[in-house]
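All the exercises in this workshop are built on plain-text protein records. A record pairs a protein's sequence with a compact description of its fold. Read left to right, the backbone structure tokens trace the chain's path through space. Once this layout is familiar, the rest of the handout is easier to follow. Here is such a record, shown just as it appears in the course material:
>
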Amino acid sequence: MSFDRWRYTVPLRLRALFQKNRLDAELDEEIRSHVEERAREYHARGLSEHDARRHALREFGGITQVREQCRETRGVTMVETLIQDVRYGCRLLLRNPGFAIVASLTLALGIGANTAIFSLVHGILLRPLPYAQPERLVSVTGTYPKGAFVAMHGQLPSMDVGAYSEGHELNLTGLGEPVRLTATFVSAELFGLIGVQPELGRTFRSGEDMAGNDQFVILSHSLWERQFARDREVIGRRIDLNGTSREIVGVMGADLRFGSANAQLWIPLHNDPKDVTAHWAGDFMPIIGRLHAGAGLDQARSEVRAFQSRVRAMFPWPMPDAWNKDVSVVPLQRDMVAGVRDRLFMLLGAVGLVLLIACANTANLMLSRAAARQKELAIRGALGAGERRLARQLLTESVLLAIVGGLFGLLLATGGLSLLKWVLPPDTPRLADVHVDWRVLAFTGALAIVTGIVFGLAPALHASRTVRHPGSPRRVLGAVGWHDRLKLSGRDSGAAVPQGLGKLLVTAEVGLAALLVVAAGLLIRSFWTLSHVNPGFRADHVLTARLTPNESFCTEPERCLAFYRGVLEQVQASPGVLDTALVNTPPLGGRVAKRSFVIEKVTAQNRVAPLFWLNIVTPDYFKVMGVPLVIGRTFVPADTSGGPPVAIVTASTARRFWGDETPVGKHVRFVGEMDWHTVVGVVGDVRAYDLQNEVPGWIAGMAYVPYTPRATGEDRRVPAAMTLVVRTTLDEAATESRIRRIVSGASREVPVSEVRTMQEAISDAVATPASTAVLFGAFAALALGLGVVGIYGVLSFLVSKRTQEIGIRLALGAQRRDVLRLMIREAVKLSASGMALGLLGAFLATRLLSSQLYGISAFDPLTYAAVVGVMTLVVVLACWVPTRRATRIDPLIALRSG
């Protein structure tokens, strides 16, 4: 279109849109003047006024058609038609509030569930990280000790790197009652690398993570508020952390989301090359990097793999070939959420199935409603409305319903999102970033419109095709003209509704519901199996409490041992306490204490020593925890008071390293130590890491040693932090109060933290599979409920169409139970194909669930059989009410209804 034409055409179209009434009046006046002028000509020729006007109208043609043709020339017919359709659709919905409420609420359930899950997916997986240029931040998939990280600098030209180590605990003392805080150790350049600035003060400077220059600390915003009352003069102040004085150099903002959400402090890494053990065998840390301008992931991967091939030679001892074998570089955001990505996509797929079921349900409602509107549609067809025009009107009504459902769904999603956050484990990454924002609103709006088109398309096409006006060049099997439809538009108009389409939609509903119920059944069975696994200990009536003296407190081992001995004696003497003990890492506690062991006559010379999970315990630990003794003996008081070094191993460790031989009497020692520990016993396997595994895959076995000055394998040292394990008949609150009083009386600088029962530890261990099973179960129940409504609606309609047949059967002597059995059998046949398709789809799709299952197969026959039984029962219940109601009709009334 040329500019000149556009300049004149657009104002005319805008005028036609906003001055419609005046232009229509002008058009009617012009048409009337043409007709009257032609009528005067006929009247002048001798015709009467009546005949002259009749001839003029006949010659002019249909006034309505001419009026529509003239309107089309304005160029805004589609906009006008849309406005008319919306207004008409709103009036129809207001005249049928029951239908509108049922349909919109059905859609609200599906749209609301999808919006809530999409909020999770967007907040956790899709929302950019709150850092500067987050797309350039990457993660190295391997882990490295401090020595390897320091060596990495300058060997990766494509990026700058930083490291961090989470989960460290420190005592804050000197400010009243001692407080146990969670700290993250970071390299000096880390905060600059990710591009975050503190609210107060500064971040760490280059070199402030080297030994002798690292006595600094940065506070979290929450700790600054709680412990320092938002004192803005806190910068430069010194505080005691684990007996070490550190200067506060910064306070982070409240919106910082880096690493663990529990971090309260950030402390520089202590890089000391002189301490070979800590430098090369301390915490193995994740590495993050920022790509330089122009650098890509492929280049970074090549450099990291080249560095990996060189770094083994830097270690003071041989490293296993499997260490960082498949090291790579991935986007940081992807690495942060790797543990929840699959589960979130599974949940998104589940709510997608729920929405499809809701669409099928609403489509059936629309079909039934179309049956009651056949006369209206036939009249509109007789007046000249084409099938496209009618289909557009019906689609507009569907979209209006979906938009109303979307608004209700948004309200449901807002409440559902809070429920989801409560159900999901607290350690779910980026959970704090999840909320409803404009992107979620846009998703809901788009989903509502697409949903309206999806469920409204088939009913709209069918209803429009049944009202073809004469002369339509296209014919469809079963289509009838508008004059025939007017004849049929009375009480039998419903016969035009396609029973095959309704049955097809029910089949789809049943199939999708069956697929979802199978998935939920597998996850629930897996959760049930996991929650009933034998953890290897007795969890009932056992309370644990973490005691954390400063490291300096245990510089003299006898002082530390005397403190713990006094605490054990006082707690043991308390009323209601049956037994007490100490352990460095209680089962399912989230901590791993590891040391490499040399096994006599098993570990070959110059080979990598296997890594063991090291449990340091007092003699009564196995009794308190109910860990069974398999062979040999447990520890006795003499083992902690200067006797020969001893150790106990678990049954799986014994099988792995000694096979059929008895390990009792064999010897093991710590790497770097000369004293051999004699194995005196074998105890049952304990699920220490999680309920699926005794130990992580990178640990070879588990050993127990007594709590003595040589427990750690380092001369004259004992671990400072220990967990008190108490078997008691008292309630948790009373026992906790008693423990705190005893510990405070023994030392006012030792905090008591992490007080919980072992039952709570087990519950926390199954929190992730429990949340997944609960959500899938809820979606499956919702799908079943929608399926019941859909089956009930279709069967009610079909039964109403067969009322006369039922009356004839009853009049001819059929028993009501026979008719009831016949209708139920047909309903079961109707749903059987849907169940078959659903089970087949589940058989193909549930392989994706394999990584989320424990103790059962994705093709578990018991689950599939149970689903068939449940679905059959649901179908029978759904068809029972309409069929039973039909059989109670008087045969004479039923016959007259035909």
Notes: Residues 452 and 812 are 46 Å apart (CA to CA). The chain has 28 helices and 21 strands. Residues 3-75 form one domain. The longest helix spans residues 387-423.
